[in-house]
Automatic annotation (TrEMBL):
Gene3D superfamilies: Transcription elongation factor, GreA/GreB, C-terminal domain, Transcription elongation factor, GreA/GreB, N-terminal domain. Belongs to the GreA/GreB family. GreB subfamily. Residues 5-75 form the Transcription elongation factor GreA/GreB N-terminal domain. The lineage of its organism: Bacteria, Pseudomonadati, Pseudomonadota, Betaproteobacteria, Burkholderiales. The keyword Transcription applies. It comes from Polynucleobacter aenigmaticus. This is Transcription elongation factor GreB. Pfam families: GreA_GreB (PF01272), GreA_GreB_N (PF03449).
Length: 166
């Protein structure tokens, strides 16, 4: 059995949209090109046919991967934390956390990250995986807590300034 694939509702929707685009738009378009190229005769030196088949294999591989990720996906919705029915000051999956470095070369630097699933990681947007060292250190901590994290420059202490669920 596969390990659970925790994912946010937005991430789940993005994966579904990509899968549907591949199935309904990209794959049929490539199939048409391959069919046309095959009807031209000799396939051994037919670039459209050769590269079309290669692209078709890539699309099929991606479709299988996305289907597998969706099959084991566990959508984590923080609606109770968003509405205030649950503790919104504690860090869990889906939280957007603002923290400040209390020591080291980044002293005083404020950073904002969102803890998401492994399929949603985008460091440019500040989205980090829930299995990353920073996320593991922050999960279950509360607003105002000081947490030690391991960085490439050694252990550093950070303070949680803000926790939000969007």
């Amino acid at each position: 059995m596969e390990e659970k694939n925790y994912i946010t509702p937005a991430g789940h929707e993005r994966i579904k949209c990509e899968l549907l685009r591949l199935l309904n738009l990209d794959r049929p378009e490539v199939v048409k090109v391959v069919h046309w190229a095959a009807s031209n005769g000799d396939r051994s030196e037919n670039g459209d046919y050769i590269y079309g088949k290669k692209r078709l294999r890539e699309i099929d591989r991606r479709i299988r991967f996305l289907n597998q990720r969706l099959e084991f996906a566990v959508v984590v919705d923080n609606q109770a934390r968003k509405s205030g029915d649950a503790d919104a000051e504690q860090v869990f999956f889906g939280a957007t956390v603002t923290y400040e470095s209390l020591e080291g070369p980044d002293l005083g630097k404020k950073t904002r990250i969102t803890i998401v699933g492994v399929d949603e990681v985008d460091l440019d947007c500040g989205h980090v995986s829930w299995v990353s060292p920073i996320a593991k250190a922050l999960i279950k901590a509360r607003l105002g807590d000081c947490v030690k994290i391991q960085t490439p420059n050694g252990p550093t202490e950070i303070e949680i300034l803000d926790v939000q669920y969007q």
